[in-house]
Design goal:
The structure is a homodimer of 336-residue chains. Chain A has three domains: 53 residues, 434 Repressor (Amino-terminal Domain) (Orthogonal Bundle); 125 residues, 3-Layer(aba) Sandwich (Rossmann fold), CATH 3.40.50.2300; 141 residues, Rossmann fold. Helices cover 45% and strands 17% of the residues of chain A. Chain A is built from 13 helices and 13 strands. At the A-B interface, helix 4, helix 5, strand 2 and helix 11 of A face helix 4, helix 5, strand 2 and helix 11 of B. Chain A binds a DNA duplex (30 and 30 nucleotides) through helix 1, helix 2 and helix 4.
DNA sequence: GCGCGCTATGGAAGCGCTTCCATGAGCGGC
DNA sequence: GCCGCTCATGGAAGCGCTTCCATAGCGCGC
């Protein structure tokens, strides 16, 4: 009786057989009320908690394959677009999807540990996050295929966008719309943000101002925009690392009386819901494409661990709205 | 060998013992390469898929309690606010959270069936959805506590808001801001939408126009708003059943050249992210309160099935922004 | 050439539960 | 008052896997 109590402990304490305990726990008829109460009391006394694994094993039932998806589900609306097609694709392949919200690094590690330790899944989708080589090796050893989305990861098949090129495109569009002094509001240390920053520097030159936002949020964007404008009042366009940052910047500009797009143009990144209402021009991410690719890739790998899954680079496009100037030509979108 | 293959089948086919099969599957060292390959080949040939439950049972390890949360995770940003505090509260109680996205009725039933059949959780949180009495009985029989949030459900402890009163409050605020002819853009058949509609009718009178949106989305809102304005051009305020509907209505009004709030006032419901940027006045839901309550309630019930959990009615407040007129008094918010 | 230690492997004992089957007790009808 | 029933219950056999322990084979040193 060291460790958690089992039905044997309950049976002993209630003075009945284990079969009876099982009947009580499963709400079978044909158990005398007093027996039932005695068992229930014993359960309560001992703090009994049936073992899920044992129940499932004994009860039989199908052993459906399961894939876990880790993502910062509620940090932005990014998961909106990714998760739906992922769930749909996996359901079509007869695979269950379990979602884990990963707000921070520590949660990520804990979740991965648990997934590995409990052998809780047959496949893994990593959204907007990477794992180290040791982790990858652990999953390989456990024969659990892993695919990544929105974040490349050494040795893992991944669907990504070319963040550098995307940011270069953003700068190009701003230039074509008449911008002369373009600045960048960068995100944090995450790979995607670093790449966007590198893309900006490549396109706008090392001399162009770059201010990192404390956090990739509206507040962070507003604060960074304030710093930027104080230091470089002549800026006439800002390419931002995310929509949230861009909205913060837009608010800060409005606060200072700088009209967009006439006095200053602003470009976001992501194209989250409602950005069209806000009128933010932005770089649109292929979120649904990420989800669909991940579903297909992980399903293939689950079915056959040796399957060849090709990494893909999904296209982005610039959606021009009210925070950039109207193009001379009639086209409203630029793809790449 | 009827049914799924087991390690015995693999062992037989590869001409080895089951212990060796297990070693291969768990990447133990000390297995000759050729033996390993033979086992792997047998696995591939037979389409072997280890049984998760058996692995966990045999491997031992902790049997952490687990709560499942069902919600339309990605329909709106509602889950943003609910899930975070829910996850945090459960983590503090040592309980794992598993999220299930429920886009439609069928998925709900399928998920509940599976949860019940696989005894996959020790507790359930229902977000924005109800279950029938038979379902509730099934969970009661399985001794799985269920709590509801944002949607009352017979016999289940729930955290809700008073949708009727909330909508009445919205109408009152609009009136105080000078509205004379107030209309309602209703949502669908969901209980919350029906109650909001009833609250509107109670406050505005049976003669006040009500147009149901085909879907509680921007598109649905815009279309319904068009119908409303065609039929009642003299409307000077719209109380909407959701923010999405309100944004659609706002867009439609702009399209028709009706300025908000001067010509027409618009009130949303929810206070989703970015509504402040859009400037939408709206009824704010206590989303974080829902999550926190659910965590505490279900944790208490898991620990002690007999625990007394009191249903709560959480307060809502009206957040006045740019789609309603500036109040004469300096206060910007009204609570209830 | 024999024994030792090491490696690769098989056998078997559970993990905690569900459930089939058997047992015993109580009970109405003849 | 005995027989055949039904009802409540206990015993034991797995569910498919991991892992401890034992065993067989083998190369090496003396």
């Amino acid at each position: 009786m060291s460790g958690d109590p089992t039905i044997y402990d309950i049976a002993a304490r209630a003075g009945v057989g284990i079969a009876t305990v099982s009947r009580v726990l499963n709400a079978h008829p044909r158990v005398k009320v007093e027996t039932r109460d005695a068992v229930l009391k014993a359960c309560a006394d001992l703090g009994f908690r049936p073992n899920r694994a044992a129940r499932r094993l004994a009860a039989g039932g199908p052993n459906r394959p399961r894939v876990a998806a880790l993502a910062p589900l509620f940090a932005t609306a990014f998961a909106y677009g990714v998760t739906r097609p992922l769930a749909a694709g996996l359901a079509a392949a007869g695979i269950d999807l379990v979602l884990y919200d990963i707000p921070d690094r520590e949660t990520k590690q804990r979740t991965l540990d648990r997934l590995l330790g409990e052998r809780a899944c047959e496949g893994l989708v990593l959204c907007s996050m990477g794992i180290g080589p040791e982790r990858a090796a652990q999953f390989a050893a456990a024969r659990i295929p892993v695919v990544a989305v929105d974040h490349p990861c050494d040795g893992l098949p991944a669907a990504t966008i070319d963040n550098r090129a995307a940011m270069r495109l953003a700068v190009e569009v701003l230039r074509e719309r008449g911008a002369r002094r373009i600045a960048h509001l960068a995100g944090g240390d995450a790979l995607a943000y670093r790449e966007r920053r590198a893309g900006f520097v490549a396109a706008a030159g090392a001399a162009a101002p770059v201010v990192p936002a404390e956090t990739p949020t509206r507040e962070g964007g507003a604060a960074a925009c304030g710093i930027l404008l104080d230091a470089h009042p002549d800026i006439d366009a800002i390419a931002c690392a995310s929509d949230a940052i861009a909205v913060g910047a837009l608010e800060e500009c409005r606060r200072r009386g700088l009209a967009a797009p006439d006095r200053i143009q602003i470009m976001g990144f992501d194209d989250q819901p409602f950005m069209d209402v806000i009128g933010l021009s932005t770089v649109r991410q292929p979120v649904a494409g990420f989800g669909a690719w991940a579903a297909q890739a992980v399903a293939a790998l689950c079915a056959d661990p040796g399957a060849a899954v090709t990494p893909v680079l999904l296209p982005v496009s610039v959606v021009e709205r009210q925070t950039t100037r109207t193009p001379a030509a009639p086209s409203r979108r630029r793809g790449r």
